[in-house]
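Risk register update: the risk of archive-format incompatibility is retired. Evidence:
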Amino acid sequence: QVQLVESGGGLVQPGGSLRLSCAASGRMLSVDDMAWYRQAPGKERELVATATSSGITNYADSVKGRFTCSRDNAQNTLYLQMNSLKPEDTAVYYCSIIATLRGNYKYQTWGQGTQVTVSS
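Archived output:
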């Protein structure tokens, strides 16, 4: 029904930058909330940033001032600009959306994840 395709992960040195993208497609009436999560080895998945359909964003304290979450509603795409990256940002990053389907049914789905590694 709904597919998410993530891109943009990779290996970067501390202090560097990366930009993640997440494109949603499928039979949706609308895309409501969109979010980025991450999961480091041996740790639980944590919320990194959210963006509502009206553009309101929220961030985890650990990334405030360094990460910027934005979305293109026309393209149903979510972005995460990550600056001043630290080794502790190393994780698999997942995109998640809540979409409204036909019949006003709310549906949450996840991307496949993209690896971000911050290391010298």
